[in-house]
Structure formats: C-alpha cells, structure tokens
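Researcher: Final request for today, and then I'll write up notes for the group meeting. The sequence and the SMILES for magnesium ion follow.
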Amino acid sequence: MTLLSARDVVARPGTSTALRGAWLEVRAGESVTLLGAPSSGTTTLLLCLAGLVRPVAGRVVLDGTDLAALRPQALAAVRLRELGLVFPDGDLLPELSLLENVELPLVRAGATGAEARSRAGDLLDRMLVGAGAGRLPHEVSAGQRQRAAVARALVHRPRVVLADEPTGNLDAPQAHAFMDLLVAATRDLGTALVVATRDAAVAAHTDRAVELRGGRVRTPEPALLP
Ligand SMILES: Nc1ncnc2c1ncn2[C@@H]1O[C@H](COP(=O)(O)OP(=O)(O)OP(=O)(O)O)[C@@H](O)[C@H]1O
Ligand SMILES: [Mg+2]
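Model: Predicted protein-magnesium ion complex:
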C-alpha cells in the first residue's frame, strides 16, 4: 500500500528550480534511498515529502491526503503525528541531555513524564546510546548524536522517518554501523524510511534506491540496486 507519494512535483525553494517533475511512491514499512550528486534535488524532495517545502506544481500525498490542501495548523499536526525527521549532525537541543531530547516530542504530545522517560530510554538502548542518556549532545561523539536523533525521530511511533544526509558527518565504518541500526530500528517498528544522500554506500542498506538527476527521479540502474 502506498503511504507517501510525490506526483510530478515541481519545487523552487529558492530562485532556481530544484525539482522538475519528480515522482516517488513509498509503501508502508519500506526503506528507500534518494541518491544523487550534489544539487540533484534529494534534499528538496525530502523536504517536500515532509511538508516543509511546498511544491509549485504536482502533489505530495500522505495516506490519501494532499499536504498542500491542509491549513498550516493541520499540516503541523499531521507532521508531528506521522513523520519523524533526522537532519545532518543530529540537530539536538544543546542544553538538554540525550534522554531529554528524545522524550521531548512525547512530553509535548501530552505523555506523562514516566511514560515518556521509559519509552525514550528504550529507544536510546535500541540505538546503542543508552549509556550516554544523561550526557549533553556536545559530550558525546557525532555517531552517538546521530543515533540519539534517530531515537528522537522514532519515539512517537511515526509512520515515516525522513533522514537528510544522516551519515554526512560519519566516516565509512561509522556510516555502515549507523545505517544498519537505522534500518533495523525502523523495520522493527514497521516505520517507512526515506534517506536523502549523495553517499552511494547508504543505498546498499535500504530495500531500494532511486537516483535523482537534475530534479527528476531516474529509473534505477541495476548497479544502484542493493
Ligand atoms: N533554499 C534554497 N535557496 C536557493 N536555492 C536552493 C534552495 N534549496 C535548494 N536550492 C537549489 O536547488 C537545487 C537542488 O538542491 P538540493 O538541496 O535539493 O540538492 P541536493 O541533492 O540535496 O544536493 P546536496 O545536498 O548535495 O547539496 C540546487 O541547485 C540548490 O542550489
Ligand atoms: Mg542535500
């Protein structure tokens, strides 16, 4: 079943056209890499899927709802409920511990402190950063921050996690270990995963990869398939 799709999306986030008719279908629970050279449009497509960039033509449809048809407040509510986002270098709040960062989305959504704490702790354990739960982001490694960011993206049980260049600050062995954990954790929870990257090694970890070039999705070549 298609969960999230981009249908002939044209996007112009700045002065230039970043997407020129991009098509993508993401099925519930599957993992997909959006692979492309610099400036090919991978980040823009991810931001369109997240409802953070509004297409100038075409549609982004999440579970049957055209995101462009939603008022800002309704769109924000859908995003908070259904999506988890991971950006380069974790993007954690610097003054909060890893555990506090991860439980924050649940606390904001009204969960009790104990409930939020226990679920956040479980996810940090799942991402192998349980031992650093009490540390501040700058007190742990880039890899640990990035894994904590995944725990934060998953804590409210979204249906899709969207990650932009999540291995951008990691060396090759760290990137492989990170992708193993990311794909396994989303798979365990039945969460779909879309990763935007220029790193072809990432593609080997997901169910499939599509290549972007010049703002369009190309049919994958056999060499790009995991
Ligand atoms: N906010 C923006 N303002 C101006 N131009 C933008 C903006 N966002 C994207 N672009 C332009 O759109 C094109 C696609 O950008 P995008 O960030 O989607 O590429 P990308 O595939 O993520 O590449 P990379 O991450 O390697 O830079 C580029 O030419 C970029 O300069
Ligand atoms: Mg990018």
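Model: The pocket of magnesium ion (ligand 2) is lined by residues 42-43, 165, 196 (CB under 6 Å). The longest helix spans residues 172-189.
Researcher: Thanks, that's everything.
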